[in-house]
Design a protein that fits this description.
287 residues, mainly alpha, Leucine-rich Repeat Variant, 15 helices, 65% helix, globular
């Protein structure tokens, strides 16, 4: 009896249990390493300023951007998730931690390993969008989500069609901004349709997002944005119009729009990923 072989089904169950245990241990070890890296860098005075700037919505350790980057970059680079589930659990664990810096680590982790994610991961990523929500985390998560949507093609865009009608305005902001930086690959039909769908909203962060998305595409074709603003006159808020047309004067002088004589290359300003902590130095009205 003692020498009988273990049934295959039981072997598979044991193997899965061992992998799950190993994964949990790996994630817990990573979380401990992140805490050990950031806690010694606490600065109560800086934390108070950060907390006040974010309207006392979140607690902070008070770690500066350079220190934060130096402390966690090696941990993020050295962590190679075994699978998407492990990445999800690691990010969600960081999101549950009290201080804001840990959510920034989660964003860095997701950004580093976004290629491991697929459209199947969109539901839990949008759950993160709706937890501890503010522009700093939402506008960083949109970069990860935008990459996933782009890889998913038509299915990804249909997912954004649903997101733009979501009850949570932060999710709607994600939908409005998910094409940032795509330039000539922007789906302008969706860009303008989303702007029209959201135009009547009173929420500041939605009105700002519409203007930001339109302004971003204006670097590629400002005349298309000018034409849209005229056609939507009276429906878009003044804030949205001001944001969208902010660079028209400079672009028109340089000949951008339609890219005659290659002049588009002179004025293109690619979107670079914004580090959440550094972003705190900017005024909130930029978002």
């Amino acid at each position: 009896m003692g020498n009988e072989a273990m049934p295959k089904s039981k072997m598979l169950t044991v193997g899965r249990t061992m992998r799950e245990k190993s994964s949990k241990q790996k994630i817990a070890k990573f979380h401990r390493a992140v805490r050990a890296a950031l806690r010694p860098l606490k600065n109560a005075e800086r934390a108070a300023g950060m907390r006040a700037y974010m309207r006392d919505q979140f607690e902070y350790l008070g770690v500066s951007t350079p220190d934060h980057r130096a402390a966690v970059a090696p941990l993020i680079k050295g962590r190679l998730p075994a699978d998407r589930e492990e990445l999800r659990l690691a990010a969600e664990g960081l999101w549950r931690m009290r201080e804001r810096e840990y959510q920034y680590v989660a964003i860095g982790l997701l950004g580093r390993h976004h290629k491991a994610l697929s459209l199947d991961d969109l539901p839990w990523l949008l759950d993160l969008v709706q937890q501890k929500s503010w522009w700093d985390t939402v506008d960083s998560l949109v970069k990860v989500i935008g990459q996933i949507v782009r890889r998913a093609g038509a299915k990804g865009e249909r997912a954004m069609d649903a997101a733009v009608k979501h009850d949570n305005f932060w999710v709607r902001r994600i939908a409005m901004l998910h094409q940032l930086g795509l330039r000539d690959e922007v789906d302008t039909v969706r860009l303008f349709r989303y702007a029209e769908l959201l135009a009547a909203e009173k929420e500041f962060f939605i009105r700002k997002a519409i203007g930001w998305a339109l302004r971003d595409y204006a670097w590629h074709d400002w005349r298309a944005i000018e034409k849209f603003l005229k056609s939507a006159s009276g429906r878009l808020s003044g804030l949205t119009v001001r944001e969208a047309s902010k660079n028209f004067a400079a672009l028109s002088k340089r000949g951008a729009g339609g890219r005659p004589n290659g002049q588009y290359e002179k004025v293109r300003q690619p979107i670079k990923p914004q580090r959440p902590i550094r972003a705190m130095k900017r005024r909130v009205d930029l978002h």
